[in-house]
Amino acid sequence: MSAWASRLHRARRSAWYLVAAVLVTMALVAVAAAQFALPWLERNPQAVASWLGERAGRPVAFDTLDAAWTRRGPVLRVTGLRIGDPAAAVPIGTAEIQVAQYSGLLPGRSLTELRLHGIELTLQRNDDGSWQVRGLPGAAHAQDDPLDALQGLGELQVVDARLTIDAPSLGIAHTLPRVDLRMQVDRRRVRAAARAWVDVDGAPLDLRLELLRAQGDGRAYVAMPRNDLQLWSPLLAPSGVAIRAGHGRVTAWIDLRARRVEAITGDVELDALSLQRASDVAQAAVDAPTVAFEGAHARLRWTHTDKEWRLDAPTLRVTQLGREQVLDGLVLAGGRQWAMHAERVEVAPLIALAALGDGVSPSLRAWLQAATPHAVLADVAFAARAGGPVRVSARIEDFGFSPVDERPGLHGLGGTLVGDGQGVVFRPDPDARLVFDWPTGFGVPHPLRLDGEIAGWRDGDGWRIQTPGLRVEGDGYAADARGGLSFEADGTRPRLDLAADVDAAQIPVAKKFWVRHTMSAAAREWLDMALVAGTVRNGRGIVAGDLDDWPFGVEAGKDRRGVFFAEGDIADATIRFQDEWPAMTRLGGHIRFINDGFRLEPSTGELAGVPLRDVVAGIRNYGQSPVEAGATAHADATQLLALLRQSPFQAAHAETLDALDVTGPTHVAVSVAVPRHAPMQLDGEVALEGVAMRESRFDLAFDHVRGPVTFDQSGFHAEALEAQQDGHSGTLALRAGAGHVRQRANAFEGELDMSLDASALLARAPDLTWLRPHVGGRAPWQVQVAVPDAPAANGAPAAHLLLRSDLVGTTLRLPAPLAKPAARALRTTIEAPLPFGTGDVLVGFGDRLALRARTSGARAGIRVDMGRARVDNAAPAAGIVVFGRTPVVDVLDWIGLMGGGDGDGLALQQVDVTTADLRLAGGRLGQTRITAARRSAGTDLRLDGAALAGDVRLSDADGAPIAIALQRLHWPAPAAKLDAAANATPAAPTIAGVPASPPVDDALDPASVPPIRLAIDDLRYGAVVLGRVDASSHRIPGGLAVDRLQVRAPDHRIDVTGRWTGRGAAARTAFQADVESENFGRLASGLGFAGSIVGGQGRLDFDAAWPGAPNAFQVAQLEGSMSLALRDGQLVEVEPGAGRVLGLLSVAELPRRLTLDFRDFFSKGFGFNRIAGEIRFGNGIARGDNLVIDGPAAEIRIRGSADLTARTHDQDIEVLPKTGNLLPAVGALTLGPVGAAVGAVANAVLRKPLAEMGARNYHVSGPWQDPKVDVVERRDAAQPATAPSARPQSAN
User: In what ranges is there compositional bias, type Basic and acidic residues (predicted)?
Assistant: First the structure.
């Protein structure tokens, strides 16, 4: 080591030792001072106050003094410290004076430090803009400078002070709860550092200040570390805005001149910031409007000189809603002149902030916050001088705002704005795509292109915005508008005065312009659906009025305070009245929109090929009135039917419409209404003017149908349509749908009142086919058809048919009690399901008889209730059952009608009927009970009555005979007929008391008639006991044969055989009858010919045939012969007073004479010994040449013929008296046509006494009803040989 190094090392060591010695000495001195000096100080406070006063340069006083020793030196704690004039100085509660005996010796350090606790400080801005601090000790008066006192006391330290910032001109009055301050003052400057807490629990602000005391110039630095920005919200109170939440960092450099702020340069970095109105924050409102920023970054420079200020923002960027908004380069200036310059400004954040301020009305604030207006302003230049010129220019990009409630929105507006103090002019950018959005109004956005000018200027206290010409082009439409808006200064809506000429456009474009919130939903939906296609030309419109009264309409008299008018011509339009209906096409007319409604003037169009005229439509009031439309048309019914098949009626009535065919002229009137909150209403009427209608399902056809048909959306009805069918007139009623049918459960109802042919009507009902042969003629019928609304279940009928008639005009060829002539009324009802076969058919004939029939496949079942109007019980599965009581029944006819077995007829299953008058083959047998039941492959029929009792067996076996076994059959004798009736010519041959049956069907095959076995134990006819009867028949090829019919009684014997063959024109009947009697007079009397003959015995043989069935007997077609041989009898007298005369009926009575009805031959009788002869029939002639009546008085011989077709006589009668002139009577008896001639002679000549008769031969000729009798030969009783006269003379 060198000598210098060694010496340096020893020096350094010595220095350390010296320092250590000094420190130890000082410590010893401090200990000594603490032990001896501190108590002295406490005992001599005045000495301390004098010492401090000398340092402060002004008086210092305090109330108490405590001294303590610290590492830095002694500390003097005083209370009630007063610096300055003791009378004016403000006492400070607690203060500490640190005597820094060590650090105070160092250069630049103060020997003493003044510490103040909990003082109240005020940073005050004066009216001249200067700032000063009040509350420091030493400033008892306003003009005092506390810094002078603090200069001698050394460093000032303030702990836990409260700082109130008071700037009335700026609207700031806020107190910071805690401030810590250190300040050093010398003669030239003040240096200070502080920390300030806005919230005692938050991070403090760092402040630095260096100020030249004399000039008041200096610079301050403020730094806010990353902190909760909400703590600084009170500083924004004057603006009415408060910070809800946020974090960020702010640093600022403040340049001071003359204690005034001359410039501020700041950096702002915010991570998040939420601003609300101060009142909302104070009330902790949850859903209060909030302006939120995700971040902000700014470098700002604010300067102020001579009442002018300027703000430069070289960097200003705000992030909101995820999008960074750039405001770089913003320059603002104010004062005596105002200016603004910016290359690009996004105004959305500024507007959002402005909406929170107190200077905005509540309604405007609500709109600004909801609409969120936004715009980008480029190349902004604004300059103005108070009371001087104004200049403004900017390019607007994407100006817009969102729709709010019933207010529209706007987006994409661009253009240039230039103006001065007189007004502004905005020229839209033709290339900008503006979108007008009014969801509650128009509903859909409207892309627009604007070209023209819009000018705005002050008009008194308000503004006027107007365009001399603005071209508006939208999607599918365009217009040239002129007019404008007038804004009053009272916050109300503006007045609009606007006119526009509209280019040709497609009709569906109108859907974009419905003011939807003032229209009913139903009307809007209908219009949206209705407008399909077409063109509007020559459109123009005017709007004039205060928008406070919009929409203009009749409500509250608004139609007198404003007007909206638009009109145009529509061409080739397609309008749809309802989705399910075909659209109306080729519509052309004029349409007008007036205030809150519109109307289509009478126009023309087509609907599914139907030409329409007088087409009108409209809405009187969008908000209250329905959409109404109407039209008329003249069209063929075929076109209307095609229209219905394309309408909703097709779905509801497809089967009916598909089966319908109509043609003929019609007139249609239809109206449509779409009310508010209700479905569409359709009303109309179709006038049928001679329409032909065909219905294929039921094979119905009507012609010349006339009358009105009323319809709506639910259906239609026509109550009294005139119609014709087969030349017969009637009325037709049709109803379909709810509100039209009379029964709610029905979907369709139809009624027809018309004269109908019974056979044709029954042909439509397969279940009643069996009834057709027995019904004929026409009668008024009422036909009702009802189709249920509910779908038919399995097997259930789809519809119901009801027919009513009194049957006047219809003949019922049915057994009693249903036999009815055409003129007689019989209330009849028929009920049937549709289609037939799906249910029972009910038929009622008044109270006489009712039946229920059902058909299942080829089988039919019928239940008949006699004496009732309706059958309530079920019909059998097959066959017939009959019950009840009835006044009259023709049993054999009913059996023939019903048939039996499993053949074509209906099997009789069961019968239990009681009748008061049983009719059998024309006879009336009184009260009888008829029962029948099915037993062992057949039907057993039982008859129980006083005149008839027995059993009938109907076998099901093919070819089995019908077995009839009667215990008794007492046939009643007919009542005596009046002479007029007896002398009348019958229309058909009869057996006494047994009227002829009506002709049967010529097509009946006799071979199908089953064999019959008949046995009657006790047969009586009137008083005549005929005894036992046995009969049988059997089938033969092509017909049937009666093997035998035997009647056996003690005095009579009758045997009959015969056959019936062929059918139709080939039918033929033949029979042989042999009658033997011991007393023909008694037999004749018992058979109803009483008084014709008395006594007589003998035989009568009859062998005859005729074409046709047995009951088709006609005298003129008779072929065969009859022989008669009687003896020992007497013919009764014809006419009292004429003596014993002979009388014969005319040929017109021949059929009865052939059955031995001679009751009017004589009035008193003519005895005979013998009557014999034969009559032959053929070719319509009856001839007899050998008929002889031989009696005691005379013998009468008759020969000749009668024309059975022409009904004329050609007969000769020869009278051979046996006693000369004493002959008491002349008579002869014959049968047939010859007898008719003898009767004529008797009527002519035998009225005189026989003694006066000289004639021998007589000739009878002429018609049967008025025969002519001539005397062929006269022989006088006194001159028997006299020759006959040359010419015949009349008997009269």
Answer: 1267-1277
Q: Determine how many CB atoms are found less than 10 A away from the CB of residue 787.
A: 20
Biggest alpha carbon–alpha carbon distance for the chain: 242
Question: Mind listing the pLDDT tens digit for each residue in 174-198?
Answer: 888 899 998 888 878 888 999 998 8
- The torsion region of residue 1081 among left (phi > 0), alpha (psi -120 to 50) and beta comes to alpha
Q: What is the DSSP letter of 230?
A: G
Q: Dump the DSSP string for 1075-1120.
A: EEES-HHHHHIIIIITTSEEEEEEEEEEEEEEES-GGG--GGG-EE
CA dist 778 and 768 (Å) reads 17
0.90 exceeded by pTM: no
Q: What are phi and psi of 982, to 5 degrees?
A: -70, -35
What is the SS3 assignment for 558? Answer: helix
Angle, vertex CA 561, rays to CA 560 and CA 562, nearest 5: 100
Token pair in block for residue 1039: 């017909």
DSSP per-residue letters across 1187-1219: EEEE-SSEEEEEEEEEETTTTEEEEEEEEEESS
Strands (E) in 494-530, as ranges, are 495-502, 505-506
Q: Residues with Cβ < 8 Å from 603, sequence gap 6 or more?
A: 570, 587, 588, 589, 590, 614, 615, 616
Which amino acid is present at 450?
L
Tens digits of per-residue pLDDT, 89-126? 657 778 888 777 665 555 555 667 888 888 888 888 88
Q: How far apart are CA 38 and CA 1128, in angstroms?
A: 204
Helix (H) or strand (E) holding 459: strand 446-459
Give the CA-trace dihedral at 1265, 1266, 1267, 1269, to 10 degrees.
Answer: 150
653 CB burial (10 A radius; 0-12, 13-18, 19+): buried
Contacts of 654 (CB under 8 A, 6+ apart): none
Please give the Cα distance from 1180 to 1178 (Å, whole number): 5
Cα 837 to its chain centre, rounded Å, is 33
Report the alpha-carbon angle 900-906-907, nearest 5.
45
Helix/strand/coil percentages in the chain, nearest 5: 15, 55, 30
The answer to whether 892 touches 921, Cβ cutoff 8 Å, is yes
Q: How far apart are CA 1009 and CA 1064, in angstroms?
A: 15
Binned at pLDDT 50, 70 and 90, residue 1195 comes out as confident
Q: Tens digit of pLDDT for each residue in 411-447?
A: 999 999 999 888 999 999 999 889 999 888 888 899 9
Whole-number Å distance between alpha carbons of 638 and 574: 22
Distance CA 649, CA 647 (A): 5
Which residue ranges make up each domain of the chain?
Answer: 745-877, 1114-1290
Q: At what angle do helices 45-56 and 146-153 cross, to 10 degrees?
A: 120
Interatomic CA distance for residues 171 and 163, integer angstroms: 17
Nearest to 1155 by CA among 1115, 1116, 1106, 1127: 1115
Cα 1185 to Cα 267: distance, rounded to the nearest angstrom:
165
The full length of the chain comes to 1292
Q: Which helix (H) or strand (E) holds 305?
A: strand 295-305
Pair of tokens at residue 822: 């055409």
Cβ contact 688:709 at 8 Å: yes
Q: Please count the other Cβ atoms lying within 10 Å of the Cβ belonging to residue 817.
A: 22
Look up residue 61 and give its amino acid: A
Eight-class DSSP state of 1236: H
- Burial of 1 by CB count in 10 Å (0-12 exposed, 13-18 middle, 19+ buried)? exposed
The neighbouring-strand residues paired with 254 are 220, 264
**The pLDDT value given to residue 771:** 75
> End-to-end distance of the chain based on CA atoms, in angstroms?
219
Q: Which of 611, 567, 608, 609 is nearest to 589 (CA)?
A: 567
Q: Is the per-residue pLDDT at 300 higher than 70?
A: yes
d(CA 688, CA 707): 5
